[in-house]
Amino acid sequence: MAGARLAARPTLTHSPAHQLSSSAAATAWRRRRRRDSVSLPRGSFSKVTCSIGSTGDSKVTRVLFCGPYFPASTTYTKEYLQSCPFIEVDEVGLEQVPDVIQNYHICVVKNRRIDSDIIAKATQMKIIMQYGVGLEGVDVNAATEQKIKVARIPGSMTGNAVSCAEMAIYLTLGVLRKQKLMDTAVNQKDLGSPTGETIFGKTVLILGFGAIGLEIAKRLKPFGVKILATKRNWSSGSLPCDIDELVDKKGGPEDMYELAGEADIVITCLLQNNETVGIVDNMFLSVMKKVVGDVALQLHSGDPFTGIEFVN
């Protein structure tokens, strides 16, 4: 199908030359892995041993990347494994995944939903993983029943959390400075318009103070903002550092509406699940300062109400 990119699969033999080539490649791979590896604290990851690629006469481990989006994930993986002929990396279109998943040992889901029906077809699968942290599209229970491990790459150890934090701040500044209107004004040579706002002096609520929330707070604090944050567990053992200097007011999920009432800006960093989908709803918006202020102005001026939903 359009957009699908399949890697050519070489015919494997068991000649002495091939075995020597594979052995040399494996040695080079192990050396490079030791060189490039990141030293992690003991116990950071559970130790999982899987027998992969041992079906029939084949000694190849096959990796499936789902869909053409986030292409760097496939490119980087292929570059890293280019001297490892015993590992094949393929990328197929999203619609093709159910038709080919039975041929693979590792599945990198990206933005493909992997439900119980697809998992049932993955008869050789050992690991389903995300090229990042989001696993909300994977039926973890179904994978567990099939004895398939499900994994993600922790954002705090890869730069993913930092990247997301920078993007969140970029988007926040873009909204405050009215980036779209500014682009129009520049094209029309309209000097001095629009009038934006500074982030200085604002109150920012971070919903979900995990790895991404922590990195956002680190980068926002020098802007001169007040930071509010929610987290299920604020015990010192669950935090990588002393955050009292970063967070001005802490709360749990039950304090979300109270904190929203104090916030000018809300940044959501929550795991997407049944509890968090749609968490920023009309009730949440109604307690935020700007919405309340707008309603008061609309009432005073007699203008039609916007930004709220009446239930009676």
What does this entry show, briefly?
This protein is an alpha/beta fold.
List the helices and strands and how they pair.
Layout lengths: L15 H21 L24 E6 L4 H10 L6 E6 L4 H4 L5 E3 L7 H6 L5 E3 L10 H6 L3 E3 L8 H17 L2 H9 L15 E5 L3 H10 L5 E5 L18 E3 L4 H5 L4 E4 L13 H6 L1 H13 L11
Parallel strand pairs: 1-2, 1-3, 3-4, 4-5, 6-7, 6-9, 7-8
Helix pairs in contact: 6-8
Quick one: how many beta strands?
9
SSE order in H/E notation?
A: HEHEHEHEHEHHEHEEHEHH
Proportion in helices: 25-40%
- The gross shape turns out to be globular
Cα-atom Rg, whole angstroms?
Answer: 25 Å
Structural class determined from secondary elements:
alpha/beta
Largest sheet: number of strands, sense, barrel closure:
5 strands, parallel
Kindly state the mean pLDDT as a whole number? 76
Looking at this protein, list some descriptive labels:
312 residues, alpha/beta, 4-stranded parallel β-sheet, 11 helices, 34% helix, disordered N terminus, disordered C terminus
Commentary on this structure:
The structure is a single chain. The model is unreliable at 1-23, 32-51, 53-57 and 307-312 (pLDDT under 50). The longest helix has 21 residues, at 16-36. The N and C termini lie far apart (51 Å). With 312 residues, the protein is of the alpha/beta class. The strands form 2 sheets. Strands 2-1-3-4-5 form a 5-stranded parallel beta sheet. A 4-stranded parallel beta sheet has the order 8-7-6-9. It has helices at 16-36, 71-80, 97-100, 116-121, 140-145, 160-176, 179-187, 211-220, 256-260, 282-287, 289-301; strands spanning 61-66, 87-92, 106-108, 127-129, 149-151, 203-207, 226-230, 249-251, 265-268. It is globular, with a radius of gyration of 25 Å. Helices cover 34% and strands 12% of the residues.
